[in-house]
Amino acid sequence: MKQYRVEIVEDDLEYSQFLTRCLDKYGAEKEIAFSIKSYSKAESFLEDYKKACDIVFMDVELGKGFLNGMEAAKKLRVLDPTVLLLFVTNMPQYAPEGYSVDALDYCLKPINYNDLSVKLDKAMRVLSQRDGIPVRIKDKNGTRIVSSGDIMYIEVMGHDLMFHTAGDVITSYGGLGEREKELSGVNFARCSASALVNLSYVRGLYGDEIEVGTDRIKIGRSKKKAFMEQLNTYLG
């Protein structure tokens, strides 16, 4: 049984316990195990934080301590740029600011299980994609093997291929078309002649650009229809 580590930062004990019960129910339905730890203060959460965490539920309006949820999220992103972050709030006006910390979604209070399960489905799709397949990348020092789930996007730069991962950029060579075929089964899609994107890292669509992690990438006119169809299929 697949197990994921979840941390809840919520100063309302009832909501913290409710989220825990929802996770237990979802896990029983989907045959997934969650290891759950709860915090009432952002300071304690950040002090204890380890990068092995998969999902963080963060209350925006933390009433205790010196940090609110948004400030804590910004500090979290320094520690871990890839953990899935879901905000818990009763104030939807915080949603635009959430893009600055790459939040996966918002859980608006009062939370109900059906709405939460949809957001968890989304989180599970992202996490399962991150498990990925091994990808061999030749660079000037030899051959590196990385998980496809760690690659955010690949772009052509001159005669090189640039593999953008969560923590590094690896310079290699070869054809982007070859990589597109290799990664077609793990939710990668071509958004232009020079860019291949891991759909699990797409965070926004802005006209003819997509936001992948913290970067903006142009969508090619000839690729836009096919790319949007693949993105919509991935998002369900």
Walk me through the structure.
The protein is α/β, with parallel strands linked by helices. The chain folds into two domains: 2-130, Response regulator (Rossmann fold), CATH 3.40.50; 134-235, Beta Barrel (OB fold (Dihydrolipoamide Acetyltransferase, E2P)). 33% of the residues lie in helices and 35% in strands. The chain contains seven helices and 15 strands. Strands 2-1-3-4-5 form a five-stranded parallel β-sheet, with helices on both faces. A hairpin with a 2-residue loop joins strand 14 and strand 15. The longest helix is centred in the middle third of the chain and has 19 residues, at 113-131. The model has no long low-confidence stretch (mean pLDDT 88).
Order of strands across the main sheet: 2-1-3-4-5
The major sheet is characterized as: 5 strands, parallel
What structural class do helix, strand and pairing data support?
A: alpha/beta
CATH class of the largest domain: Alpha Beta
* Total domain modules: 2
CATH topology of the largest domain: Rossmann fold
| Helix proportion range | 25-40%
Q: Give the CA-based shape.
A: elongated
How big a fraction of the residues is strand?
A: 25-35%
Classified in CATH, the superfamily of the largest domain is Response regulator
Whole-angstrom Rg: 19 Å
Succession of helices and strands: EHEHEHEHEHEEEEEHEEEEEH
